[in-house]
């Protein structure tokens, strides 16, 4: 019997997020959208039994994780309103299913990070007093005290050691080339910059060993990320990998003798385990993209999730002695690998002689037939496409499209120099990389060069706006800007403090770089637009505010463009009242957005 492969079925394939152990690592938690929305599950790694815990408690779109409490009976999690990311913190009892609100800050983002060694205090990030900083919440009394008061945001991981030091990542400059590891006592005393290879390197902490003497760190001081172990007593660092591959530290083994590392090479992510004493590496043989990695069962096993181009996400226990994968949760779909399309990893030349790596998906090709094609630009811009299972690749290929996903300059995974190439150049060299991606598609004998479009979300939406306006002469047939940016300064004025910081990092201040900010704002080039455009945005988006799409639409109306599904000088505009910045982890919202993309490009290409 022939399987019916529909958008709904492809876009409904679930994913697992935030795999985390409790204090003793005898039970793991994870978020999973098997029920069409995100719920919290627990897994016992010894028996491989798992069960659903929450039932509608979590927000539809997950933008922040959770933290286990030391009693192993509670987690703290976040909840916002319709994707606005103004999270409050909640305490959830895994046994009684009771949920208790811990904070009430409707105008602030709050994100749980970790708990104190004794377990009664929660470290969390918040914008309640302006810039994103660390706070400590007494879980019993709900008393909150501010821990850090930095002018610039405190991002990412932080760890709380047994000897009451909190180690966290912070950059006291606006240079994107730099970040450092800082240390502070839980009472706010003795704050200091602890680990900094140089003021031109991004140095980060990810884990602390049991006695607090070693930190698992990474640095890009040699031009690519390198993992190491920093001794908090001697202030010495031991590096691993000899700088051959781009690697980032993940965590220590339970016995403190091993360091778990993630290796990013040619758009695949592998798991590496280094013996801390000898530096000898053990590579876990797993295809594609591995994530959510952690030790369990006294370091004899790993847990991780994995995907490859034709394999949706699986949850795995890996026996380190036998080198055998045991699948806990297989792909949650009726389809098999034979039903999916592979991804070809390609490299194409761009305008200045650089090579741009990309993932290329295509339908089953018929001899002599020409297919419509798309360049799909990722967000970030400091992000990348991997050789993993990609919903867009599968949906578009199954609907007869060729899809190119380029890792344009500014992407991660290809070294520090490449990542920094679009500093003060958003919509410049990277935009030309996109155009040369279009040229690459035109060179393929199975692509119709007259039917090539562009689309993307967030920074990809910014890029789409720019392509259809500033670079309209590239000859795009159509474009879809999803949760995009059309005017940088107007976005800056409405942004939260930590997002303003990010813009200054990448573009410099507006006062000193006004010409750049205005030149790279699509709204200032909108008179050039000729291709039909689809604009999609969530009303509650705090990252790329809804006004970024509304002002572009309003300008089109002023230029006598009409809202319609066909014809010249027409646009298609959609706002969602129940969404923020994408909501792609919620299955019904994912289906809704994906259907809109397919419908638009089927008609317009």
Kindly report how far apart the N and C termini lie: 32 Å
Low-pLDDT parts are none
Helix content: 10-25%
Strand content: 35-45%
Structural class assignment: alpha+beta
CATH topology of the largest domain: Rossmann fold
With strands numbered from the N-terminus, the spatial order across the biggest sheet is 29-30-32-31-33-34-35-37-36
CATH architecture of the largest domain: 3-Layer(aba) Sandwich
The number of distinct β-strands equals: 37
- What is the average per-residue confidence, as pLDDT, rounded to a whole number? 96
**Relevant CATH superfamily of the largest domain:** Alpha/Beta hydrolase fold, catalytic domain
The biggest beta sheet reads: 9 strands, mixed
Our count of domains comes out at 2
Query: In angstroms, what is the radius of gyration?
Result: 24 Å
CATH class term of the largest domain: Alpha Beta
Fold and architecture overview:
The chain is an alpha+beta fold. The chain has ten helices and 37 strands. The strands form eight sheets. A nine-stranded mixed beta sheet has the order 29-30-32-31-33-34-35-37-36, sandwiched between helices. Strands 1-2-3-4 form a four-stranded antiparallel beta sheet, with no helix packed on it. A four-stranded antiparallel beta sheet has the order 5-6-7-8, with no helix packed on it. The longest helix has 18 residues, at 587-604.
SSE diagram, text form:
Blueprint (H helix, E strand, L loop, with lengths): L6 H5 L4 E6 L6 E5 L6 E6 L4 E4 L14 E2 L5 E6 L8 E6 L5 E3 L8 E6 L5 E6 L6 E6 L5 E3 L7 E7 L4 E6 L9 E6 L6 E4 L7 E6 L5 E6 L6 E6 L5 E3 L6 E7 L5 E8 L2 E8 L5 E4 L4 E8 L4 E8 L2 E9 L4 E6 L13 E7 L5 E7 L9 E7 L13 H8 L3 E5 L9 H4 L9 H14 L4 E11 L1 H11 L8 E5 L5 H7 L2 H11 L6 H6 L13 E6 L8 H12 L3 E2 L6 E7 L10 H18 L1
């Amino acid at each position: 019997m022939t399987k019916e492969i529909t958008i709904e079925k492809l876009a409904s394939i679930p994913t697992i997020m935030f795999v985390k152990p409790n204090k003793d690592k005898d039970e793991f938690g994870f978020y999973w959208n098997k029920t069409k929305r995100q719920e919290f599950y627990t897994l016992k790694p010894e028996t491989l039994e798992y069960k659903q815990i929450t039932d509608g408690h979590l927000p539809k779109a997950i933008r922040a994780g959770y933290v286990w409490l030391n009693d192993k009976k509670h987690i703290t999690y976040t909840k916002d309103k319709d994707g606005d990311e103004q999270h409050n913190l909640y305490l959830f009892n895994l046994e009684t299913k009771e949920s208790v609100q811990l904070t009430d800050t409707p105008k602030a983002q709050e994100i749980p990070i970790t708990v104190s060694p004794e377990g009664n205090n929660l470290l969390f990030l918040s914008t309640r007093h302006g810039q994103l900083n660390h706070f400590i919440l007494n879980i019993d009394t709900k008393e909150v005290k501010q821990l850090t008061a930095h002018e610039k945001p405190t991002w990412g991981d932080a760890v709380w050691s047994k000897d009451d030091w909190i180690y966290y990542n912070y950059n006291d400059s606006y240079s994107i080339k730099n970040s450092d590891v800082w240390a502070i006592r839980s009472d706010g005393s003795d704050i200091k910059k602890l680990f900094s290879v140089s003021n031109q390197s991004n140095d980060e902490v990810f884990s602390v060993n049991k006695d607090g003497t070693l930190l698992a760190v990474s640095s890009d001081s040699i031009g690519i990320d390198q993992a190491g172990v920093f001794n908090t007593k001697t202030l010495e660092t031991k590096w691993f990998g000899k700088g051959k591959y781009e690697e980032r530290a993940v965590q220590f083994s339970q016995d403190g003798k091993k360091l778990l590392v993630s290796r990013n090479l040619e758009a695949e992510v592998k798991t590496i385990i280094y013996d801390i004493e000898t530096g000898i590496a053990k590579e876990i043989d797993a295809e594609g993209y591995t994530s959510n990695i952690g030790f369990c069962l006294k370091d004899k096993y790993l847990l991780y999730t994995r995907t490859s181009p034709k394999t949706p996400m699986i949850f795995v226990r890996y026996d380190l002695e036998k080198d055998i994968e045991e699948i806990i949760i297989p792909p949650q779909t009726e389809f098999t690998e034979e039903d999916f399309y592979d991804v070809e990893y390609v490299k194409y030349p761009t305008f200045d002689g650089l090579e741009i790596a990309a993932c290329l998906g295509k339908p089953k090709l018929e001899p002599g037939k020409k297919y419509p094609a798309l360049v799909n630009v990722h967000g970030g811009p400091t992000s990348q496409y991997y050789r993993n299972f990609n919903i867009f690749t599968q949906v578009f290929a199954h609907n007869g499209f060729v899809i190119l996903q380029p890792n344009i300059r500014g992407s991660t995974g290809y070294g520090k120099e490449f990542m920094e190439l679009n500093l003060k150049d958003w919509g410049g060299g990277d935009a030309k990389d996109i155009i040369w991606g279009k040229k690459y598609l035109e060179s393929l004998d199975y692509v119709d060069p007259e039917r090539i479009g562009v689309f993307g979300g967030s920074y990809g939406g910014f890029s789409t706006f720019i392509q259809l306006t500033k670079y309209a002469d590239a000859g795009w047939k159509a474009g879809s800007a999803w949760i995009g940016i059309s005017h940088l300064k107007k976005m800056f004025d409405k942004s939260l403090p930590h997002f303003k910081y990010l813009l200054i990092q990448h573009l410099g201040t507006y006062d000193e770089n006004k010409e750049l900010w205005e030149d790279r704002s699509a709204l200032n080039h909108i008179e050039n637009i000729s291709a039909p455009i689809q604009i999609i945005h969530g009303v509650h988006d705090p990252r790329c505010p809804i006004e970024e799409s509304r002002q572009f639409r309003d300008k089109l109306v002023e230029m006598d463009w009409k809202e319609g599904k066909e014809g010249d000088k027409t646009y298609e505009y959609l706002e969602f009242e129940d969404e923020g910045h994408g909501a792609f982890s919620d299955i019904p919202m994912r289906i809704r957005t994906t259907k809109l993309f397919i419908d638009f490009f089927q008609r317009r290409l």
